[in-house]
Write a structure and sequence with these properties.
- With 286 residues, the chain is mainly alpha-helical.
- The protein folds into 2 domains: 3-101, DNA polymerase, domain 1 (Orthogonal Bundle), CATH 1.10.150.130; 117-282, Intergrase catalytic core (hpI Integrase, Chain A, Orthogonal Bundle), CATH 1.10.443.
- The protein has helices spanning 3-19, 24-43, 54-66, 71-92, 117-125, 132-147, 151-155, 185-202, 222-235, 246-257, 262-266, 272-282, and strands at 162-163, 168-172, 178-182.
- A 3-stranded antiparallel beta sheet has the order 1-2-3.
- α1 runs antiparallel to α2, α3 runs antiparallel to α4 and α6 (132-147) runs antiparallel to α8.
- The longest helix is centred in the N-terminal third of the chain and has 22 residues, at 71-92.
- The chain is elongated, with a radius of gyration of 28 Å.
- The protein starts with a helix and ends with a helix.
- 29% of the residues are buried.
- Mean pLDDT is 82; it is low at 261-272.
- The active site is at residues 150, 174, 245, 248, 267.
C-alpha cells in the first residue's frame, strides 16, 4: 500500500484513539475496515486520497455486497469511510467530500417471526362453532397457512380463481405474473363449508365475487383480516406477537424445515403437479 494512502489512515486512527477516546476494540474494527478499503483503492491505481471519488467509493461498497457481507456490516464500513474522509478533508484543507454524494444506506430488513407449529394448530382450531363468521374465519386462516398467500392476495381472491377439486388457487403476484398455489385437504374442507353454508348468508344482497367477506357482506379488507387474525390469536392464548404476515412466513418456514426446496416455498413458475406433491410431502397440514 502506498505511504500516501497509509499515513492518513494512521492519523485518523490516532484521532479515534486519543482524541475521541474510543475503545481499543472499536479502533481495531475501524482499522480493519479502512485497511480493506485502502487496499481496494490501491488496486484501482489510486495513489493519493485526493484522487478518491464518489464513484470509487460506490464501487467499493458494491464489492462488499458482492462478497456477501450483511447490510449491517456494509453500513458500518460506510460509516468508517465517512469518518475518515471527513477527517482527512479537514487536515488537507479540502472542502469536497466524496462520501457526501453516496446514496442513503439501505436498512436491513429482519424476517418476521414464524409461529411454532403448535401455536398454528391452536390458532386454526380457535374458530369454534358453526356460525357464519366462525366458518369464514376457519376457512380464511386455513387457506392463509395452507397456501402462504400474501394478505392482499387472500382478501382479493375471487371465486373464479379458486379450484376446490384440484385444491389450488390462481393468483397474480408481483408484476402481474400468474402462479398456481396448492393448498391442503383441511383448507379445502373449510372452504367448502364456508362457501356452501356461510358466504351465502353473509352476502345475501351483495353482488361481488370476492371469496372472503365481512359481517356486512362487503369484501374483506386487509385491516379486517388483521383484526380477525389478532383476535383469534389472542383467544387462542398465543403469547407471541402475531403480525399480519405471520401465517405466510410460518408456511414457508415450516415447509423448509420439513425439507422442501426454497423454490417450492415461494411457489413461482413451477409445475402445478410438482407443487401439489411438495405440499403433500412437506406441509404440516397436507
Amino acid at each position: 500500500m502506498p505511504g500516501a494512502l497509509e499515513e492518513p489512515l494512521g492519523a485518523f486512527l490516532d484521532e479515534l484513539r486519543t482524541g475521541r477516546r474510543l475503545s481499543p476494540r472499536t479502533v481495531d474494527a475501524y482499522g480493519r475496515d479502512l485497511v480493506d478499503y485502502a487496499r481496494f483503492v490501491a488496486r484501482q491505481g489510486v495513489a493519493r486520497w485526493e484522487e478518491a471519488t464518489s464513484t470509487l467509493i460506490d464501487g467499493y461498497l458494491a464489492q462488499l455486497a458482492r462478497r456477501g457481507l450483511s447490510i449491517a456490516t456494509v453500513a458500518r464500513r460506510r460509516a468508517a469511510l465517512r469518518g475518515f474522509h471527513a477527517h482527512w478533508g479537514r487536515l488537507a484543507g479540502r472542502a469536497s467530500d466524496p462520501t457526501a454524494e453516496l446514496p442513503p444506506a439501505r436498512r436491513e430488513r429482519k424476517l418476521p417471526h414464524a409461529l411454532a407449529i403448535e401455536d398454528v394448530e391452536r390458532l386454526l382450531a380457535q374458530p369454534e362453532g358453526e356460525g357464519a363468521l366462525a366458518l369464514r374465519d376457519r376457512a380464511l386462516l386455513e387457506l392463509a397457512y395452507g397456501s402462504g398467500l400474501r394478505v392482499s392476495e387472500l382478501v382479493g381472491l375471487t371465486r373464479d380463481r379458486l379450484d376446490l377439486d384440484h385444491q389450488a388457487v390462481s393468483v397474480a403476484g408481483k408484476g402481474d405474473k400468474e402462479r398456481a398455489v396448492p393448498f391442503g385437504r383441511a383448507a379445502r374442507r373449510a372452504l367448502a363449508e364456508y362457501l356452501g353454508r356461510a358466504r351465502p348468508l353473509l352476502c345475501a344482497r351483495a353482488r361481488h365475487d370476492t371469496v372472503f367477506v365481512n359481517a356486512r357482506g362487503g369484501a374483506l379488507s386487509r385491516m379486517g383480516f388483521w383484526k380477525i387474525l389478532r383476535g383469534r390469536a389472542r383467544a387462542a392464548g398465543i403469547a407471541t406477537r402475531v403480525h399480519p404476515h405471520a401465517l405466510r412466513h410460518s408456511f414457508a418456514t415450516h415447509l423448509l424445515a420439513g425439507g422442501a426446496d426454497l423454490r417450492a416455498a415461494i411457489y413461482t413458475h413451477l409445475d402445478r403437479g410438482y407443487l401439489r406433491e411438495v405440499h403433500r410431502t412437506f406441509h404440516p397440514r397436507p
